[in-house]
Amino acid sequence: MHDEATLATDIPQRGFGETMDPAARARKWDRLGASLGVVFVALQLGLGAALGGAPALDAPPAEIQSYLVDDGANVLMAATMGTLSAFFFILFLGTVRTFLRTAEGPAGSLGTVAFGAGLVTIALATTASLPTVALAWDDTAALADPGLVQAAWNLNTLALVPIGSSAGAFCLAAALIILRTRVMPAWVGWIGALAGVVSVIATFFLLADDPDSPLGTPANLGGFLLAMLFILLLSIFMTIRLSKTEPGKD
Predict the structure, then answer these.
(1) Which one is predicted more confidently, 139 or 4?
(2) Boundaries of domain holding 165
C-alpha cells in the first residue's frame, strides 16, 4: 500500500498561478461553441411554437389587433426566445468561421461569406419583428391606427424575404466547403445546398405580390426548416470532429 507521502507525489501537481494549456482551453471553447448550434435551433423551433395560431399575412387589421392585445404575451415570449437564440448563434458562428476557414484553407473566401451572411441573418431576424413587438408591449396595439397595425404585421412577415436571402448565402457557402473538402459527410453539404436554393427562391415572393403565392409561406417555411436542419447537423458534426482532434485521439 502507498503511504501518504507516496500518494502525494503520485498526484499531478500544478504550481501556483499555473493555468490550463491555452490550446486545451481553445479546444474546449470550440467544442462548446460548436454545440451551441443545437441550442439555437431548439430556441428557434420553440419561437415558432409560441407564435402558433397567429393571423395570416392578409388578415383584417381588426383580427391582427385583437391577436396582439389578447396574445401579446406570446409575441413577447417569442421575441425573448429570438433574442436569446441570437446570443447563442453568434457564439456558434464564431466556431463555424474558424472550422470552415481551417477546412477551406487561409486563401479561401467561402468561410468569410458564411460568417458575414450569418451575422446579417441574425441581425435581420432580431430587428425585423420589433415593430410588432412594440405593438404587443403593454397592449399598445389597442391604441394604434389599423393601418399602422397592418403595416407592422406585413413587415413582420415580409422580413422573411431578406432573411432568407442572407440565410441562403450562409447555407450555400458552408455547403460548398463541405462538398469540396469532405470535412463532413457529403449528404450534410447537399442538405445545406438545398436549404440555400429554397431560401433564395423564396426571395421572389415580393414580385408575386400575393399572400397566397407558393413562394410565400411554403417556400419560406421550407427554407427555414431546411436551414434549421443544416445548422443542427453542422453543430453535431463539428462537435464530434473537434472532439476527435484532442491530443491522444484519432
Answers:
(1) 139
(2) 37-237
